[in-house]
Give the backbone structure.
Amino acid sequence: MANDVVSSMHIEPDDWQAFLRARPRPVKQSVIDTNQGNQLDSQMLTFLNDVSETTLSITGKWAERKWLHITAQYLSMESHSEREPSAPIKTVIIHKTAGCGLPISMADAIQRVKNSPHNVARKQINKQAKQARRARMQQAMDSWSTSCQACGAPLGAYNAFYHHGGMGPWCGACIEADEYVSGLKWEPKSSFWQ
């Protein structure tokens, strides 16, 4: 990879600040505060401007690693995490590449990061997990059954109604037949699964 590195690169502080303002925040404010983010960004700028360095290694917690990985993606650099057998936390290793540096178009850089293989795979895994949860929930709703407290009729999750005060399950016919009860707010059991 050292052969692919651009021989000379210097990023002006004003250009770097413009990049940081345009870049979406890699990690939520509640996880990494502004000072931590500034320190990580400062290390990244020093690394970019140092022609003699082709690799940067920083040991950090998950949020710091995420910050560095995403910033490296915006700057068209390669990065990965490794763990030493004796170390409790991982180390981020970032490599300069031929095309690394400030993006010409921030919109293109944002799209590149969003469409990176890692992000696409993560979104697909989350989507599959959500579909599996919905299928399990649907199966539970379909197999659930009880009987009406008022008339004893068999009820399923879609036609067993409950009141938030603890009344139920009642069927729709019994609720409509009772003048007092029909004025209360009732919800089907299926709404509790959503």
Residues 1-7 have pLDDT under 50 and may be disordered. The first helix runs from residue 13 to 22.
